[in-house]
Amino acid sequence: MHPHVDPSTAMYVLSALLGGIALASACGLRAFLPLLALSLAARAGLVHLSARAGWIAGDPALWTFAVATVLELAADKIPIVDHVLDAVATVVRPAAAAVAGWAALGTVDPRLAAMAAVVLGGGALGVHVLKAKARLGSTALTLGHANPLLSIGEDIAAAALSAVAFLAPLLVLVLLAAVLLWLLAPRRGAR
How many CA atoms lie within 13 A of 138 on its CB side? Predict the structure, then answer.
């Protein structure tokens, strides 16, 4: 995704793929914040978009993503509205991840970008479902009082993943390894 690296090199492909994974994961938490970050990164020259994805860096997309981000962040802090938002986001977040993945890999190979869009959209759906389950658990345990705090944590995670996508995509490998180790680690009390 780095604009100063030849798109045909393995390092560029790896960087674009890891950046796409980070963006898709962020989209699983927030649909529009990662797209806003992608738009801003493209405008700042941190990422090179294919001609077909160039609209993402345009003024209409930037303003749309900015307004949608503010609305999404605010609505997610309101109990009950957050659950309605999660229901709608079941479709919107994977679609946003697909767009982000397609844009991130569009300069590498259009076929790879299309495949990545489908896979990353599915990955974002998985992140979204886990987040929604955690939110339901929080609602059951705290009657929704902890949900705004969880929402702030999700905002921070989505922003951090979006930043990593553009500034340090190789860090995604470290994060993926840490999550994998955590998932594979034996649990106390588990047989």
Answer: 18
CA distance 71 to 130: 22
CB 56 within 8 Å of CB 39: yes
Name every residue whose Cβ is closer than 8 Å to that of residue 118 and which is 6 or more positions away in sequence: 98
With vertex at residue 71, the alpha carbon angle to CA 142 and CA 51, rounded to the nearest 5 degrees, is 130
Which residues, in sequence order, are CB contacts of 61 under 8 Å at separation 6+? Answer: 35, 39, 55
pLDDT in tens, 70-100: 999 999 998 888 888 888 988 999 999 999 9
Its pTM stands at 0.84
CA dist 133 and 150 (Å) reads 12
Question: Which DSSP letter does residue 9 get?
Answer: S
The string of pLDDT tens digits covering residues 149-184 is 988 988 999 999 999 988 887 888 888 777 778 767
Sign of the alpha-carbon torsion through 173, 137, 150, 188: negative
